[in-house]
Amino acid sequence: MQVQVRGRRSAGWWITFGVIAFGTLFFAIGAIVGGVSISFVTDAERAEGTVVYLEWQGGQVSSSSKSRQSSGPTAHPVVEFTPAGGEPTTFRSSMGSNPPAYDEGERVDVLYRADDPEDAKIDGFVSLWLIPLVFCGIGLLIAGIGTAIAIATRRRSRLTRGGSGTAVPSVG
Predict the structure, then answer these.
(1) How far apart are CA 168 and CA 164, in angstroms?
(2) What stretch of H or E contains 162?
(3) Which pTM does this prediction carry?
(4) For residues 78 and 64, what is the distance between their CA atoms, to the nearest angstrom?
(5) 83, exposed or middle or buried, with CB in 10 Å at 0-12, 13-18, 19+?
(6) CA contacts within 13 A on the Cβ side of 91
(7) Phi, psi dihedrals of residue 121, rounded to the nearest 5°
(8) pLDDT of 7-36, one tens digit each?
(9) Per-residue b/e over 10-44, b at no fewer than 16 CB within 10 Å?
(10) What confidence tens digit (pLDDT) does each residue in 42-87 have?
């Protein structure tokens, strides 16, 4: 005779499935953003630019009932470059940091679209690959944990049922 509590087992299965699905979604978002970066890099023109100034953003203080923490401002480099056969163009990098990753006056390599020079990025690891790698890494970690839990649960349920074909009462 085999006794099972179906509600608890079913709920555990849905939670495990949800964890795996969430991790897979994170990985897919990272892969899509990475594909966009690859497409941008392969189609982009190159130019040399100069960081003309740092635009500081943020620095708000958030408070909660348990703790109070502040997030300092981040410096976003504003870069000027001249596209091939065009006028000098300025853009603000979407990636900011504290301490600043770049100094005013620093020379940087710029990638831009020939048909839209204002769609430009600094040719650097952080601005091109950090977000895809973070999303893919978190996605793999979460999906891997969910998969490991699913495998362990399945093995445990097989052992609980018994390998000899005889029915063993199980609780849980």
Answers:
(1) 10
(2) none
(3) 0.69
(4) 34
(5) buried
(6) 22
(7) -140, 155
(8) 555 677 788 899 999 999 999 999 999 999
(9) eeeeeebeebbeebbebbebbeebbeebeebeeeb
(10) 999 999 999 999 999 886 544 444 444 446 898 999 999 999 888 8
